[in-house]
Each structure stands twice: as structure tokens, then as C-alpha cells.
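Bug #77: duplicate submission created two jobs. Keeping one. Sequence:
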Amino acid sequence: MRAVISSPRAQKAGLPYIPASKDMKSMADRSPRPSLRTRLTEGVIKRVGLVRRAMTLGVRAAVVDAEGRVFLVRHSYIAGWYLPGGGVERGETCGEALARELIEEGGIRLTGAPELRSLHHNRGRDHVAFYVVRDFEQPAPKQPDLEIVEAGFFARDALPAGVTRATRARLAEMFEGAAVSAKR
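Kept job's structure:
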């Protein structure tokens, strides 16, 4: 017969403690391997991206002045010239995000409602709402800062070198009647 040895915790609970046999200890030390079904399911979830992150939403705008020029920005952290815009924060509407981004990136304040022109799939799970803004004020030209190194209004026939493909596509859709692309 095996001897019963009580641990302090077992004694407090009024239960006897019986040490495990050598075979039981080696089994307990091994972590059970997930089933093939579990491993396949986890692999699919990771690859599809359902666990990694949710869909993101951004806004961009073609801000067009009275002379028909378009406002573009050049960021410090990525190459190329872009339409101003950025991400929609939690609890923020697209319109609120657009107003915030225009102030941050261009010192531009909306004086009328922007026109939602189209929605685009950017990449992965990112989507962008594209607006046209004609009613605005910009009290002073945008000065360079840590995020925006250059910004200004440009005639469509005199765009700076390095305008991104997506920016050119949005301008062509808007001014030249090109078909709206669902992608970038």
C-alpha cells in the first residue's frame, strides 16, 4: 500500500495528497498536441487575416480652388505627391475625419459640404472614401512640418513629378470622365 502524504494546501482543505507516479508526471509535463482540424483552422484564420486586424477606412479629397487647381501634399515618410487625407479614427465619421485631415495636412477649413465621389479598395483590408471639396478656405499657405514637407495647389496640366498612380487615377476620373476604378 502506498503512503499518503499531505501537502499544506491539501491539509487546509482536509484532503489527502497522493504523489503522482513517474509515468503520470511525464505525461503531465507534455503539452497535448492540437488536433489536425484545430491546426488547419488556426492556419486558415491567420492566413485570411481574420485575427490579425480589422478593416480600416481612410479618406482622401481633391480640393479644387476657383482656378481649377488641385491641392497636393508630399509626406516626409513616403515618396510621391498625394491628395490630402488619412485614416478615420474610432468614433469618427468620414466627414469628421476629412475635415480633421484637411486642417492637419493643408490648413484647409471646409466651408461647405464635401461631395463623396467614390469608394476604393486600397490593399489588404484598407478602403478609402474619395471626396471632392470646392467650398473651403485656406487663410495661409501650408508651411512644412514633420509630416508634410511640401504642399500646394497645382494646375492639372502642371502636376509635380512624382504624383502617385492612385492620385492620377482619381483626377482622371474626376476631370476626364475616366471610369471609376474600385481599386486604389
